[in-house]
Specification:
Strand content: under 5%
Number of helices: 27
Shape: globular
Oligomer: single chain
Helix content: 55-70%
Distance between the termini: 42 Å
Largest sheet: 2 strands, antiparallel
Number of domains: 3
Radius of gyration: 24 Å
Structural class: mainly alpha
Length: 543
């Protein structure tokens, strides 16, 4: 890092992070600080100088910005205000919301306590002006007018800036929440993150939370809706008792495996934030222990590990006696880790190797900059047992200049792994590429979807990845992939191929291929649930 006042710390990471053993302690603030720094250092060369960058931020009417201010922000030593992050977006010529939405998500998810305040501080507007703007945006949203991600972000941020605003118009708020959640289900990238955070603010709001939970309950009950894992998981954003009861209900009597998994994921933060009382924790541990003993053999490896991870999160005094026995047996039999294909030391070694290869792919890396945080994020994105942790680690990498180099490195690793026949590692890499991949990686994933040698486990993950990975697929590919798995399903009637078909419809819906969706809806040779999913996409308005 050859930049002004920081030259004496050449080769050091973005901050001097504390360490636990050999691992970095990645605090929420440090994660965001890292993102700002690597974006600046890998942007235009003139911005590698902190003094020049601080002066440019000051020119954007940001008060009190000095080189030392930038240094403290980028080392995680002080909080960064919203306007400063917007300044980074402007100066680095990043899309609006591409950094602020990541900050909002990361700071909310990793907050040490359940909170209702905005994680990324904003300037408090004049109260009267805030009221007027809130009412304007609310009526536009409830009236069916299309709002972009910035407008949803502004509307929900204003609800915390105008605490005395009248929320008596409950019908309007419920209508807005219903529309917002509908858009969460069909958007991706920054558009999704802004809407996702907006809905989480509604869930956490002391008044609007009731409306948001009710909308969430109704959507989850609709069996035609796709993206149920992520939708059910959103209950973790509400500390309301009815949200907790819904999670418990979906664990005891889930409509399908995806609903169960979403409820399980919601438990991670709900336990952490104390949303469950003691009796609920005991009941929860008993339910999950029963799942392991009664249905453990039917669980996929990822879900099984997540069940055990949640059980271990419950304090010992609150564990059901059956859970205590099951966990003891798991430890005795050394069944874990079941999902991630590596012990911790090996995971760290692999992640460091992949990070080194990715850095070597950078076009113009800053001189002397040695990034210690990238390997830690790669390790989380690949090996952490909790899906959301993997997702948000990948989200940080995706928002950074490392996205393409890391994706290329993972594709190379995927190709070698496929030849070795390591199915578990293949699916792990595919899950990461779902967030990080671009058009080049998409072609490789397409090939796996229709490869007759691939198991349904691999093709299911690959098909799911196509719903989010960068680039586009031609209609001819969708027709080929649908035909391949429809034939396989009709021959054996196995649920694996039905799941792949459902994943494909999900990806086709996200791609907006209405012609292909119409074909699926009319195809009586398709599984009925897949035709229902196609009908849902056709009936869902585009943003």
């Amino acid at each position: 890092m050859a930049e002004g006042a920081e030259r004496r710390t050449r080769g050091r990471p973005p901050t001097s992070p504390s360490r636990a053993g050999d691992s970095l302690t990645l605090t929420p603030r440090l994660r965001c600080a890292w993102l700002l720094r690597v974006c600046r250092l890998n942007g235009q060369r003139r911005w590698r100088n902190q003094t020049a960058f601080a002066q440019a931020l000051s020119a954007l009417r940001l008060q009190g910005v000095h080189p030392a201010t930038v240094s403290r922000w980028e080392r995680g030593l002080s909080a960064v205000p919203y306007d400063a992050v917007r300044g980074y977006e402007l100066l680095l010529e990043r899309p609006n919301g591409s950094l602020t939405s990541v900050f909002d998500t990361v700071l909310r998810y990793y907050a040490p306590v359940s909170r209702t305040a905005l994680p990324l501080s904003r300037l408090r507007p004049d109260e009267r002006a805030a009221w007027q703007r809130t009412e304007e945006l609310l009526r536009r949203a409830a009236g069916g007018e299309v709002l972009d991600g910035d407008a949803w972000d502004e509307l929900t941020a204003l609800t915390f800036s105008a605490p005395r605003f009248s929320y008596g118009t409950g019908d309007l708020w419920q209508s807005a929440a219903r529309r917002l959640l509908g858009e969460v289900l069909i958007t991706d990238g920054v558009n999704w993150m802004q809407r996702f955070e907006a809905f989480n603010r509604m869930l956490a709001h002391p008044v609007l939370g009731a409306e948001a939970v009710e909308v969430l309950r109704a959507v989850v009950a609709d069996r035609s809706v796709q993206s149920l894992i992520g939708t059910v998981c959103m209950y973790d954003g509400s500390e309301r008792s009815d949200a907790g009861l819904q999670v418990m209900r979906h664990l005891r009597s889930p409509a399908d495996d995806r609903v169960f998994k979403g409820a399980l994921m919601a438990c991670v933060r709900k336990i952490h934030y104390g949303h469950f009382n003691g009796a609920q924790l005991t009941a929860l541990s008993g339910t999950l222990a029963g799942v392991l003993t009664d249905s453990g053999a039917d669980l996929d490896a990822e879900t099984r590990e997540l069940v055990v991870s949640v059980l271990r999160q419950i304090p010992e005094p609150r564990r059901h006696r059956h859970a205590v026995h099951v966990l003891t047996q798991e430890q005795r039999d050394k069944k874990l880790p079941a999902f991630r294909p590596a012990a911790r030391d090996h995971a760290r070694t692999v992640s460091q190797r992949l990070a080194h290869e990715a850095c070597a792919r950078m076009d113009t890396p800053p001189d002397g900059f040695h990034d210690l945080i990238l390997p830690a994020l790669i390790e989380e994105a690949l090996f952490h047992p909790v899906f959301d942790v993997r997702l948000y680690a990948a989200t940080l990498i995706h928002a950074s200049p490392y996205r393409a180099p890391v994706a290329g490195t993972l594709l190379k690793e995927l190709s070698a792994t496929w030849l070795r026949g390591d199915e578990l590692w293949v699916t792990t890499l595919l899950q990461a590429l779902r967030k990080l991949g671009g058009p080049t990686e998409r072609s490789a994933v397409e090939a796996l979807v229709v490869d007759p040698r691939a198991s349904t486990t691999i093709t299911d993950v690959a098909a799911h990845a196509l719903g989010h990975i960068g680039g586009t697929s031609p209609p001819a590919f969708w027709t080929r992939a649908l035909g391949h798995h429809r034939t396989a399903w009709r021959r054996g009637g196995r649920p694996g191929h039905a799941s792949v078909l459902d994943r494909l419809v999900y990806a086709i819906g996200r791609a907006g291929e209405s012609g292909v969706l119409h074909t699926v809806r009319k195809d009586t040779a398709m599984p009925p649930a897949v035709r229902v999913s196609a009908r849902w996409w056709l009936g869902t308005p585009r943003t």
